[in-house]
Design brief:
Helices cover about 25% and strands about 25% of the residues. By secondary structure, it is of the alpha/beta class. The chain has a single domain, classed as Rossmann fold. The chain has a seven-stranded mixed β-sheet. Helix 1 crosses helix 2. It starts with a strand and ends in a 9-residue tail after the last helix. The structure holds adenosine-5'-triphosphate and magnesium ion.
């Protein structure tokens, strides 16, 4: 298990997103959790830029399209499960299977955790004050460790 827990303003979230995005590789899944306005889309935008999506591309909440893909160093797929009806719909779309060559970032992933790959990195955002978020990131396995820049012994790289 790899985990990180910290408090962050917008600048720290931006930096964290850039760092994690820069470490992303095809097949990585980043599951974002947090209530309305927690900052999931804000973080997704900076994950995208870290993964090489042009800074001129505005990553918005893909609530009405379910999935948006952006070109980057690796293809960047951004999904939002807020309005998805049920898990069968998600399986029909094949979000993870169809995008094995991309990094997949999923807002509201906790709506259907059973459909999220086991080696996903989960990032939980909660509002501490209007500008400060608590970030709790965790995951099993090597992908999560690499994304967080952590070694199995707990050191930070
Ligand atoms: N420290 C912070 N980290 C992230 N976002 C912040 C922070 N402080 C303020 N914000 C602001 O919070 C607002 C809501 O963020 P965002 O749209 O990313 O939330 P969301 O979790 O995607 O919400 P929704 O579930 O409605 O899509 C944005 O205007 C963002 O700029
Ligand atoms: Mg959003």
């Amino acid at each position: 298990m790899f985990s990180m827990d910290f408090e962050a303003g917008r600048t720290a979230i931006r930096r964290f997103g850039h760092r994690v995005g820069a470490r992303a590789e095809a097949g990585d899944v980043i599951a974002l959790v947090g209530g309305l306005g927690a900052g999931k889309t804000f973080l997704a935008q900076h994950l995208a830029h870290g993964a090489g999506v042009s800074p001129t591309v505005r990553v918005t909440s893909p609530t009405f399209t379910l999935v948006q893909e952006h070109a980057g160093r690796v293809p960047f797929v951004h999904a939002d499960l807020y309005r998805l009806g049920d898990v069968d719909e998600l399986r029909e779309v094949g979000l993870f299977e169809a995008n094995a060559g991309a990094v997949v970032v999923v807002e509201w992933a906790d709506r259907f955790p059973e459909a999220v790959p086991r080696d996903a990195l989960w990032i939980d955002l909660s509002v501490l004050s209007p500008s400060i978020r608590r970030v709790f990131a965790r995951g099993e396995g090597e992908r999560a460790g690499r994304l967080l820049g952590l070694s199995p012994t707990g050191g930070s790289a």
